[in-house]
Amino acid sequence: EERAGSRTAMRLLWWAAVLVLVTAASQPAEAFKYDFLHGVASGDPLSDSIVLWTRITHRFEPETTKVRWVVLDRTGAEVASSTALATASSDFTIKVIVDGLLPATEYTYFFEAVDGDGGSRSPTGNFRTLPDPSAHVERAKFAVFSCSNWGFGHFNAYDAATRMLNHIDFWIHLGDYYYEYGPETYPSRAQAVRPRGLEPDHEAVSLEDYRLRHATYRLDPDLQRLSASAALVAIWDDHEVADNQFSTGAHNHDPETEGNFTARRDSAIRAYHEWLPTRSGKIGDEDYVGDRYFRELKIGNLASMFVLETRMLNRTNPDEVDGGDLMGGTASMLAAAAVEDVRNLPEEVEKSLVERRDFLEGYRRRENKTLLSWEELRWIERQTRTSAESLVTWQLFAQQIVMADIAFADLDRAADLVDASRAAGWREQIDNATCSNGARAVSFSPAPFMKENFMKEVDLSARDCLSMRAGWLHGKLKIPYNLDMWAGYLAERERFYEATARATRNMVVYSGDSHNSWASNLRDKDGNIIAAEVAGTSVSSAGIETFVPFLSADLMSAGFLAANPDLLYANTEKRGFFVVDLTHETHRATYVSVDQVETRDYKAFCEARLEYDSVGVGQRREKGMRLLSGEHCDFGGPREGPADRKEAGVGSQYWVAAPFVITSAILIMLVPGLVLWKRRSARKRERYIAMMEMSLEEQQEL
How many CB atoms lie within 10 A of CB 663? Predict the structure, then answer.
């Protein structure tokens, strides 16, 4: 009777679980059908218009879904609304342009899925329209980012900026918004802070691959918070398609295994415009911008911001020499000559190195090396002339790569310029790193995947010794740090300077790509200061500290400053971003660094501040940008709201149906079984004890 009762109870509970699941399946869409897992975003603000973006995720079978969007003013009153369709052709992303807004005004917005039973609602986002182009504007403030790599670490820089965004008008991303590599490359799984969750689990090549990669990054809670907090102004670099891309190919593209490069590039650009709030036009229509994505933002009479495209339209191959690895090429020369002491080179090796330097100098000055299309150059000349003639105070250029001519660090000169106590320690580092004192040196890199050896003495491989010797020689010979920068396209840079000649009164260039921070004064061929450049570090991508780990950051920075007279600031190990505070009198840039990206428990610090004063119409610029001391800022601490959400793999985005209901059903099924199993085990134990107390005859009789 007891067993029969238990079986009956179990059957009832199982039927209850089935009933719960059936009920879940019949619930309205408001409860279970849709979700906005990838958050919301706004972008490309104008004085009367904004682009709004989201993506709808279907909990069961994907289908065309009507989505309503709503824009509210600060009082909560609805100022604009309509509906749009999320379809498979755009990967269920939704991008709408809202017109008729007021200048310099703050708004909020949201999306909701619409059907007969109601709909799910997205998180709420915020944006601010730009001032009227003819208005007098006293001040603008914005943050600038580049190079966010999922595997290398958490996007703490995004979170730090979000905590400042009540004072920031918009944010800029200068490219490498994501990386195309598979999970075994840059970083490898062993190096990765986030080794799981990257989709697809191979290098992105096709349209579906790039869509999945965007989806992975959009699940990051810090990116979602920043995207919802202010409007984005974005431009791609190379990794949105493939490493060291140029107009007809890429360093990281093999036509034999990865197909036609143009098809790959077009797929990547399409996914980019689908997944970001860009003014792209509709794919397939005449107004679709595709890769012609250079444009201007007008901030009243305060500034004109020109967003440039330097990767896809007309860039020539940056990797023609040594496959882009200049230090590797020099290291190969040293290996072939069996050089062990760089301070006492054989005469023929020294001659070969001087010839190499001279060749590189001529190569980077070639007229046929280009970055910009003629169409874009003419546009730059026309728009900067209009800006200057309209008496706009500042002309700002947001683009991908470092414009200053930066030679590699002159380490010996850096040691010569400091006090004796520091110089002795630096010279010892140099000798150890170049294996002049044997093949052992201290590892100074704080990168997460190198922390095991941080500040410890380690053995250097033969390759390490050769690389460090090559770096030392590049500093002595003033060989460029990287030919993938404007330093590899000097004739093109002169063409750019000529195109902006009418705007050089108050011109500032913003750059990314290098994963380290550089601030420089820019000069024309006659030696006149014509602009300032603020180049930012990465959000998470590894920098110089990982491939030159045997020299401390202060020595490396001092070495770069010693080798480059117009370089005002260099930080070769920190991740972060910079903030621009702009008035008619002064351009102030503040570098903000996060102390680590290995976990999301971080602190942020203001590392340095630079100021560049404006000059009036008809005045000659006498002074360049100047470096000020750093200032205290602290944005770390407990996370709030969406940032507390654990990142999920993209594969989970389609299996989110009624989690509470499903969990309840599983518990209803499992708990009674566990209870019955425990009761049965107890009865078996009681019988066993009773049998042990019987005599052998009683057991046999039983």
Answer: 10
Q: In what order do the strands lie in the sheet with 303-307?
A: 295-299, 303-307, 394-398, 507-511, 529-535, 517-523, 567-571
Return the structure tokens found at 38. Answer: 């990838």
Handedness of CA 25, 29, 31, 36 (dihedral sign): positive
Q: How far apart are CA 419 and CA 430, in angstroms?
A: 16
Q: Tokens for 109?
A: 């917005």
Q: Which tokens hold the place of 626? A: 């100047």
pLDDT per residue as tens digits for the range 460-506: 999 999 999 999 999 999 999 899 999 999 999 999 999 998 776 79
Whole-number average pLDDT of the chain: 88
Contact residues for 697 (Cβ-Cβ < 8 A; gap 6+): none
Peptide bond before 187: cis, by omega within 30 degrees of 0? yes
Provide DSSP, 483-528.
TTSGGG-HHHHHHHHHHTGGGGGGEEEEE-SSSSEEEEEEE-TTS-
Tell me which of 14-23, 68-77, 155-164, 353-362 is least confident: 14-23
What are φ and ψ of residue 534, in 5° steps? -115, 110
Contact 552, 429 (CB under 8 A): yes
What pLDDT does 614 receive?
A: 96
Written as one string, the DSSP assignment of 636-675 is -S---GGGGSPP--GGGGG--S-HHHHHHHHHHHHHHHHH
In the predicted structure, residue 209 carries a pLDDT above the cut 90: yes
Tokens of 686: 């009681």
Q: Are 594 and 604 in contact (CB under 8 A)?
A: yes
Predicted local distance difference test score (pLDDT) of residue 632: 58
pTM of the model: 0.88
Mean pLDDT of the region 49-78: 93
What is the C-alpha to C-alpha distance for residues 146 and 4, in angstroms, rounded to an integer? 68
- The rounded distance, in Å, linking the Cα atoms of 11 and 365 is 83
372-392 pLDDT per residue, tens: 999 999 999 999 999 999 999
Give CA–CA dist 127/104, Å, rounded.
10
Other C-beta atoms lying within 10 Å of the C-beta of residue 221: 21
Is the model's pLDDT at 660 over the cut of 70?
no
Lowest mean pLDDT: which of 295-309, 456-470, 664-678?
664-678
Take residue 695 and report the two structure tokens written for it.
Answer: 């005599």
**Helix crossing, 221-229 with 207-218: angle to 10°?**
80
Q: In the prediction, which pLDDT does 221 show?
A: 97
**What pLDDT does residue 619 have?**
83
Residue matched to tokens 């609602």: 121
- What number of other Cβ atoms are within 10 A of residue 644's Cβ? 10
Return the SS3 of 635. coil
Q: Say if residues 164 and 136 touch (Cβ distance below 8 Å).
A: no
Angle between helices 659-692 and 2-25 (to 10 degrees): 170
The three-class DSSP label of residue 624 is coil
Q: Assess contact for 140 and 169: CB atoms under 8 A.
A: yes
Residues 6+ apart with CB under 8 A from 637: none
